[in-house]
Design brief:
Number of helices: 10
Radius of gyration: 23 Å
Order of helices and strands: HHHHHHEHHEEHH
Largest sheet: 3 strands, antiparallel
Number of domains: 2
Distance between the termini: 50 Å
Structural class: mainly alpha
Length: 263
């Protein structure tokens, strides 16, 4: 029997998971975070974990310092002598909000792919389908989206391993930008040639760009513009043109829809 004094402390994969849970449970607008309250609740979680001798990673401590820094910046009074131009300066919470929104999109995508994997594992394939494949046709190996997201996660982990850092970019990278970028990669590869997507991930300058690129790949797969292939066991994962590739890349409507979805 459990004691009435037993305390259950939820476990999170990282500090962003903890912050998202605090925000969603209280139905807080993620773009207008009450930083003082959230910081207090976050620190309370760390204190309870310490009392229960739960070892949290350094990223939790780093995020605590970040929250306290944001809170201190928001508490500082504005100098009226600086004029109205300073009133329009960037919200100290903005960078954190962008990280949370990106993390939530990636987490939702991962959950969706996990559900798809579970469905695929419980569906029987028909061995007679090979009768309908020509002998000279090489369909390659079946690559699921779950394998793609797993490979992307490994690339992302290698990039972000170590002390957490903030990406500082001159311009914001959007998912629609990355769809166009992939179109250029296919043009550079040549007609009928694949694009080895993990190589493209590795070339991205920031974590934010990598996530935007991954979401762009998911959009192109959803619109049947590309397919994920792997010619050999343990070979490189590649993207190949699918039936709607030219239409998606040439039309303005799909791009406008993507831009609207990721505002």
């Amino acid at each position: 029997m459990s004691s009435p004094l037993d305390i259950h402390l939820e476990k999170y994969d990282g500090p962003l998971d903890l912050l998202l849970d605090l925000i969603r449970k209280q139905q807080i607008d993620i773009k207008d975070i009450p930083i003082a309250n959230i910081t207090a609740q976050y620190l309370e979680y760390l204190d309870r974990a310490r009392e229960m001798d739960i070892d949290l990673g350094s990223e939790f401590v780093y995020m605590a310092a970040t929250l306290i820094h944001i809170k201190s910046k928001m508490l500082l009074p504005r100098d009226p002598a600086l004029g109205k131009e300073e009133d329009a300066e960037e919200d100290p919470r903005q960078e954190l909000v962008e990280r949370l929104l990106e993390h939530e999109r990636f987490k939702n995508a991962a959950e969706m792919l996990q559900q798809k994997r579970l469905i695929e594992e419980n569906v029987w394939s028909n061995p007679q389908m090979k009768q309908f494949v020509a002998e000279d046709e090489d369909p390659g190996l079946a690559v699921t989206l779950f394998e793609l997201v797993k490979a992307f996660g490994e690339v992302l982990e290698r990039r972000t391993k170590g002390r957490p850092t903030y990406d500082v970019e001159a311009t914001e990278v959007t998912v629609a930008d990355m769809v166009r970028y992939l179109g250029n990669e296919f043009q550079r590869a040549g007609e009928g040639k694949p694009v080895f997507i993990l190589r493209v991930f590795e070339r991205q300058p920031s974590r934010r760009a990598m996530i935007a690129l991954f979401l762009a790949v998911l959009e192109l797969i959803k619109m049947r513009a590309v397919v994920v292939t792997q010619k050999d066991l343990f070979g490189e994962i590649a993207l190949e043109r699918n039936v709607h590739f030219d239409r998606v890349m040439a039309a303005d409507e799909p791009m406008a829809a993507i831009e609207k979805d990721y505002i």
